[in-house]
Design goal:
Helix content: 55-70%
Number of helices: 27
Strand content: 5-15%
């Protein structure tokens, strides 16, 4: 009652005191009608309830005053109707008391009209309650409320069967109509109560319980009276139940007249969920009972309706479950189950139609999940699904088969049509994806199998499309149509992939180091670390033989970690030996998607006690051009640590050079495709000279790659290039061989200096 203003609270205490005194008075045995208890206390308690109800209706209609002096209404029409209903019931009792002292007068009387008006007004109030509660609710919640109402009504109809049969047996008259109206209105009242409970009521807590408790007690008293009306005598404990019911309803009206709570409504409680289930059992019980003993036809009809309405959500749920079982939760596309179920019918078994099955797998998708999180990966998959669907015909079947794998069935399409669609799909995925401010570039590899040439069923086509897809990945061709020799390629690929995982776990990877020479002094000040795979049977494998497989298998993060650890360990060893050398390490674009990379690199350098400048990270020009915003963030954080940044394969991007101005870069590595031809090609030499001048004008150093002869070396010196590396200087060699090479070089320099 804390929501009731202080000036109204005294009326509640007066009402409660009068009702309590009346109930206690009824419990005291007496010989008949007691004027004080059955007269004064009865009327005083009822009219006190009326006064409280109308006070609540006044507060609800008047609203509350806002900060600007205006009134903000929070009135509820059901409060006004409930107050009028309580008044009608009290008028009926007052009339009865005036006309009859201890026995009933003529039937029906004006009191019956007042009692019936109570039902009508309160049912209207309850209808408004349920309507507002169910507004915006799900269909299942509405159906639960209907089931609860019908089940409760059918059960009460069984209890009221004698009263209904007696009333129906009498000749048609106003009395008969009134006699039938009472149990029928009780049916509606109890049905409304069940509907409110099933929908959890407009509010939770005591206010809701006051209403339900009051209505249940009132309906129960009516049922007892209907079953034995001739035995009723004024002043018995049965009158106390009506008084208590009206008092509880009055308390609900009073609390409903207070300002509405702004707290959000919680989830439905156990009782709200249990009511439909109990109602279904009640309806089933009524139907079983009707087969054994006479039950009113109304009870049977209500029970049948309960069971019928209860089946509606079951049917709906079955349909929903069937759809869900065939639908991918993330993208909304058909899933693997639906694809395998629908493809056989679309292949047109027994006719001559050609079809093509495309199996599509995103390249380096695991790196997105590992670096940016699965939520970003999920959003990428959703957008990929949208783009693929937009590039296909309405007759084509698109499904997400799992992970980053999609399947497409092209009906009435052969080899050429399938290739054209593959090109179209790859073009659709080539456009950048924008996810949470991050620009991502995605590509896909597609395998194609044609029906019926390469398989007559979905299993055979999927197996061959899968082999073709991995051939497309290994050759980076984007798409590949299955050929007979792809079978052996698939076996080799799977075996190599397993061997690669073992190599990473068993430390079979090693680093070779290629020195970089300062062209101004001839000194070796740094090296580039290059990974090699010491395969147990195939010997030493260069990166081009396994890096694509590393990317495809999502192992690039593990490989990068291994290379960085080995390179920094070697740098620490050289520093301890008095031979400090900077080490350059190549990073793939997928590694640079990782936001945690700068923190990990900084931790690895600090743990070895090295200066951050010992490490140079080489990034591809392609990454800088494709995702400049992300590159700026990652590279700025690395540069802040003191790590140097170099652009590898400079000049091969064929795009804007604005990133040289915008991004934190220390050096450029001129690609060997420019260095090789410059000794015989004047235009190539001009490009090299211009690139060196451009780098110096921007405060960057230039490193030339692929220097294999002295002519190119001397030209680079003449152009003012800072450093060079290549076979003329040294091939990439293990750290031990490099130590020997460095020692020999020092001896040679000393001898030359002495001579």
């Amino acid at each position: 009652m804390s929501a009731v203003p202080l000036r109204w609270r005294w009326s509640l205490w007066v009402m409660a005191g009068l009702v309590l005194a009346y109930v206690i008075g009824l419990m005291v045995p007496d010989s008949g009608f007691n004027p004080f208890v059955d007269g004064f206390l009865s009327m005083a308690s009822e009219w006190a309830c009326v006064a409280v109800c109308w006070a609540a209706a006044y507060r609800a209609g008047r609203g509350r005053r806002t900060g600007r002096g205006r009134r903000e209404g929070h009135g509820r029409p059901e409060v006004l109707l409930a107050a009028a209903a309580v008044t009608a019931n009290t008028l009926g009792d007052t009339y009865e008391l005036i006309q009859r002292e201890t026995s009933f007068a003529a039937y029906p009387s004006p009191a019956d009209a007042a009692y019936l008006l109570f039902y009508i007004l309160f049912l209207a109030s309850l209808m408004m309650l349920v309507r507002r509660q169910l507004r915006g609710s799900t269909t299942s919640l509405v159906l639960d409320s209907v089931v609860g109402s019908l089940g409760a009504a059918s059960l009460l109809a069984v209890l009221l069967t004698p009263a209904l049969n007696t009333a129906a047996a009498n000749p048609a008259s106003l009395g008969t109509v009134v006699a039938i109206a009472y149990p029928m209105l009780d049916l509606l009242l109890l049905a409304s109560i069940a509907g409110i409970v099933a929908s959890h009521g407009p509010e939770a807590g005591r206010r809701w319980m006051l209403l339900v408790s009051g209505l249940v007690i009132f309906a129960g008293a009516d049922v007892v009276f209907a079953l034995a009306p001739d035995l009723y005598v004024i002043g018995t404990p049965l009158d106390a139940t009506w008084a208590i019911a009206i008092a509880l309803i009055t308390l609900w009206v009073d609390r409903s007249g207070a300002p509405r709570s702004t707290t959000s409504r919680g989830t439905r409680n156990v009782s709200a969920v249990a009511v439909p289930a109990v109602s279904i059992l009640a309806g089933l019980g009524v139907l079983i009972l009707a087969s054994q003993v006479p039950v009113s036809g109304l009870a049977v009809v209500l029970a049948a309706l309960t069971m019928a309405v209860a089946t509606i959500p079951l049917i709906g749920r079955q349909r929903v479950l069937r759809v869900l079982s065939r639908t991918d939760d993330l993208t909304g596309l058909p899933n693997r189950r639906a694809f395998y179920a629908d493809v056989p019918g679309r292949l047109g078994a027994g006719d001559s139609r050609r079809s093509a099955l495309l199996l599509l797998d995103l390249d380096r998708f695991k790196e997105v999940n590992d670096s940016l999180g699965h939520d970003v990966g999920d959003r990428l998959l959703v957008q990929v699904g949208v783009r693929l669907a937009g590039a296909l015909r309405a007759t084509d079947l698109l499904a997400r088969l799992g992970g980053d794998e999609f399947g497409v069935l092209l009906v009435n399409s052969g080899h050429d049509e399938a290739v054209a669609v593959a090109v179209k799909l790859r073009a659709a995925l080539a456009e950048p994806f924008l996810l949470e401010g991050i620009t991502l570039h995605s590509s896909a590899s597609m395998g194609i199998a044609v029906h019926p040439e390469q398989g007559n069923d979905v299993t055979a086509l999927m197996r061959k499309a899968d082999m073709a897809m991995y051939k497309a990945k290994s050759t980076r061709s984007g798409h590949h149509v299955y050929q007979s020799d792809d079978d052996s390629h698939g076996d080799v690929r799977l075996r190599t992939l397993q061997e690669l995982r073992t190599a990473i776990a068993d430390d079979e990877l090693e680093l070779h180091y290629q020195p970089k020479v300062d062209l101004a002094t001839g000194d070796v000040q740094g090296v580039e670390a290059l990974v090699r795979w010491n395969h147990p049977t195939r010997g030493l494998l260069l990166p081009e033989h396994f890096l694509d497989l590393v990317e495809e298998a999502g192992l690039m993060h593990a490989l990068t970690q291994i290379v960085l650890n080995k390179a920094l360990d070697q740098a620490a060893l050289w520093t301890a030996q008095g031979e400090p050398l900077t080490i350059a390490v190549n990073l793939s674009a997928s590694s640079l998607v990782d936001r945690d990379l700068p923190d990990r690199v900084g931790a690895m350098i600090d743990s070895r006690g090295l200066p951050a400048s010992v490490l140079t990270l080489e990034v591809t020009e392609e990454f800088l051009l494709n995702d400049r915003e992300r590159a700026r963030d990652i590279l700025t954080r690395l540069r802040a640590l003191g790590v140097r940044i170099a652009v590898d394969d400079f000049g091969t991007g064929y795009s804007s050079l604005a990133y040289l101005r915008d991004l934190p870069i220390d050096e450029l590595k001129l690609d060997q495709s420019f260095v090789f031809p410059m000794i015989n090609d004047e235009r190539a030499a001009t490009l090299v000279s211009s690139a060196i001048a451009l780098a110096h004008s921007l405060g960057l150093q230039m490193v030339a790659e692929g220097v294999e002869n002295s002519v190119a070396y001397n030209e680079l010196v003449r152009f003012g290039c800072d450093s060079a590396q290549g076979y003329l200087v040294s091939r990439p060699v293990p750290a031990g061989e490099l130590d020997v090479w460095l020692a020999d070089r020092k001896v040679t320099a000393i001898v030359r200096g002495a001579s």
